[in-house]
Design brief:
about 280 residues, alpha/beta
């Protein structure tokens, strides 16, 4: 079990308001539908028990029937879950026999408002995934903030066979302090006002309690917010593999080494038995 307990809900909600005030501002626009090459797909409303509204998601069934299903969690960018319409992850998963559910976090697209920390929404997404793929293996693929908020869930929830992460920071405020140093006094204020929430944000605590059979973390060597040693530490605490792609910055590992990243992702969730070549970017065992 995770060594960091969940803060009381009133403190969690109060901390969330300050956290969002310190978060990067994103433009609001209507999220695009998947392009024709990703057909067939289905728009989905994911229930949020005890909270307002639903979460917007898209279901991509596997080619020729599914052997399992993957929850895909996007980074904190204005494109929301449509981030996964590019770079070939969805196509590779479906060819390998996996269906996929891409999820929009609160405040993106038609998803409801944020109420509590976002790991609650990851849990709702996994519940919907299990409903749509009963009896099959379940997996998770999270990028940046999406993968970050999955860590507490995987430390307390059984039933996920494999988890793959791209560009995940051990702590959002450590990432922010490096990327936005002018806000460091506010990050310190958050820690003083909400120590329990700040501790809950430390994903090293949760990674050490993972309840998944396989996991791997990937990042870029030039990412100013997620250092190579951060990726290695998260992976080692989780008992998984790690890969650092040379020359890549934040969200660029998939651009610099797409075949490498996707192959490791598929292997991690159990879809293929590929192995990294000796000439591959630096990686853990």
């Amino acid at each position: 079990m995770s060594t960091c307990s969940r803060p009381p809900l009133p403190r969690e909600r109060a901390a969330l308001r300050l956290f969002r005030a310190l978060s990067p501002r994103l433009p609001c626009f209507e999220l695009p539908t998947p392009p024709p090459r990703l057909e067939p797909w289905e728009e989905v409303e994911v229930p949020r028990p005890g909270r307002t509204g639903t979460l917007r998601a898209t279901w991509f069934p596997a080619e020729g029937g599914a052997g399992g299903a993957v929850l895909m969690l996007p980074p904190w960018t204005a494109w929301g879950s449509s981030y996964f319409h590019r770079r070939g992850r969805l196509e590779a998963l479906r060819r390998a026999g996996w269906s996929a559910l891409t999820l929009d976090f609160p405040g993106f697209g038609d998803s409801g408002p944020a109420e509590g920390l976002f790991d609650r929404d990851v849990e709702d997404g996994l519940a919907e995934l299990a409903r749509r793929a009963p009896g099959g293996p379940l997996a998770l693929w999270g990028v940046s903030a999406g993968g970050y908020w999955a860590h507490p869930v995987l430390a307390r929830r059984d039933g996920v066979a494999g988890a793959f992460f791209e560009d995940v920071s051990p702590h959002l405020f450590e990432w922010s302090a490096r990327v936005r140093p002018v806000f460091r006094p506010m990050f310190l204020l958050f820690r003083l006002l909400f120590p329990a929430v700040h501790a809950f944000y430390d994903m090293r605590r949760h990674a050490g309690a993972f309840r998944v059979a396989r996991s791997a973390h990937v990042s870029g060597a030039l990412d100013p917010g997620v250092r190579p040693e951060d990726t290695r530490e998260l992976a080692e605490r989780a008992g998984g593999r790690w890969l650092v792609v040379p020359g890549a910055r934040h969200l660029e590992a998939i651009k610099a080494a797409p075949e490498q990243v996707i192959a490791l992702g598929l292997e991690t969730i159990g879809a293929v038995q590929a192995r990294l070549s000796p000439a591959s970017p630096r990686s853990g065992p």
